[in-house]
Amino acid sequence: MKAGLRWLLRLHGAKRARVVADAYRQQLGTESQSGRAILADLAHYCRIGQSSFIAGDPHQTAFNEGARDVFLHVAEMCGLKPMDFTALIDEVSDER
Description:
Blueprint: H1 3-12, H2 14-28, H3 33-45, H4 58-77, H5 82-94
C-alpha cells in the first residue's frame, strides 16, 4: 500500500479514507479538462521534473521539497504515476 493511502487510513479509517480518495479522483482526475489543468499547474508550480535542491540555500531547498511532497500526495490520491508527470509538465510548456 502506498504511503498516502496508509496516511489516509490512519487519519480517517477505512470508510472515510475511501471517500476522501474518491473525492480527489473526482475533482482532480485527469479525465476532466479542469482537473487535468489544475494538476498540470501544480506539477509546474511544485517543480516536478526539476531538482528541489538549491545550492547554498537549505531553506529554499526545504520549501521546494515541501511543495514537491504535496504534489506527490495529490498525484497519488488521483491515481497518477510518475510517468504521467511528464505529460502534465509538457501541457503547461506547450501553452506558452
